[in-house]
Amino acid sequence: MKPILRYAIAVLAIGSILFLIACPKKDAIREAAKASYRLPGATNDVIAAIKTGVARGVFTPAEARSYGAILEPVANAEATLIQLVRAAEAIYRKTGSIPADQMARIRLLFDEEIVRPFVRLLEIYKVLSPAGVAMLQTAIAAVRLLLNTIGGGFGSSLLNLLSASESPGSIGPFLNNPKMRFA
Amino acid sequence: MADAKAKALFIAKSLIELIENDQIRLADIEGKTTTEILDLAEAEAAKAKQGAQDLKNTPDA
User: Which one, A143, B28, B38, B58, has least CB within 10 Å?
Assistant: First the structure.
């Protein structure tokens, strides 16, 4: 494994654990804002990679279109999520507290409309991988961990579910059942 | 068209870059106010929306 990847995984793991142990209430909005910034950044990285992949003949135009169809609602949800965090910040400034239902809406949007399709994309990537390309499996696992860490910014803890979905066949119910919650 | 192994390696490298870029993004917002971070987030989100639409409309070669 590349040293940088080992480092990234260690940083993400430590960050995730620290968040789960203690996240000061007063910093909740700031953490949510940071997570709101990281999400579309990651989406832009994926989009840029797919565009490069098309240019290099790694992906077909049809594949790029199908990825675009997955990522467009993700990008829309990310924009909505930022508005929700901004609204929560405004309430916090006035009242000094964050309404539980506001944070619940933010978590739900993150879980259902961002993580779900993002994981679907990772599953597609995994299917594309021939046996023996361990690097891709490692990278996918690291991105799942990243999603979990970012989710911590919204008070969401996806680690168990994301880990469970690593098992063959277990991703189906996760993706297909709209009632299934992640937290 | 690239073979399956080349494709898998390309995707893997892209995902690792994503993780590295995330750490850079985190460093970039150190010291910024929450409002400033949300402003940056909105700019990223607008770029993502446009980029996803562009992908959806990728023309055949």
Answer: B28
Q: Which of B14, B50, B26 is nearest to A56 (CA)?
A: B14
- Contact between chains at A36 and B38 (C-beta distance less than 8 A): yes
- Helices and strands, counts by H and E, chain A: 8, 0
Residue A181 Cα distances to A130, A162, A172, angstroms: 31, 12, 14
Q: Tens digits of per-residue pLDDT, B22-34?
A: 999 999 999 999 9
Q: Which amino acid is at B22?
A: D
Look at residue A182 in the predicted model and tell me its pLDDT: 30
Q: Are B44 and B28 in contact (CB under 8 A)?
A: no
Please tell me the distance from the alpha carbon of residue A90 to that of residue A82, in angstroms, as a whole number: 12
Contact A34 B29 (CB under 8 A): yes
pLDDT tens string A63-79: 999 999 999 999 999 99
